[in-house]
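Marked as duplicate of an earlier ticket. Keeping the data here for the record.
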Amino acid sequence: MKTSAIAIVLLGMALNLSACATASQQDHRSAHVTSPDQYRVLLENDQVLVLEMVLEPGESDRLHDHRDETVYFQQGGSLRISLPGGEAMDVTVPDGHVMWHQAWTHQVTNTGSEPVMAIIVEAKP
């Protein structure tokens, strides 16, 4: 199995740890509110919130929540995903990777040498 394939499997495993890190509807901390330097609203309506994320090398966002989401990594890279309980996983996400995840809380750090860019589509309650 190639390194990028292993990273995708590990990313899926890390993302599925969300049972202990699910974002509640009542205390929702949206990424563009907690980390406005890394997230920009592209569209918001009654059904979805669409965000653009750009993390420069060495940059971290702040702990935030996502509702059920689909993420398209325009430009992937090396990331550390940290959960509220202290668990963290280092992953390598390839360019063009698409993932879906149920609502969760996390922080992301770009541990690579290139920017990571993604489009995030969150379902509205």
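See parent ticket for discussion. Residues 26 and 125 are 11 Å apart (CA to CA).
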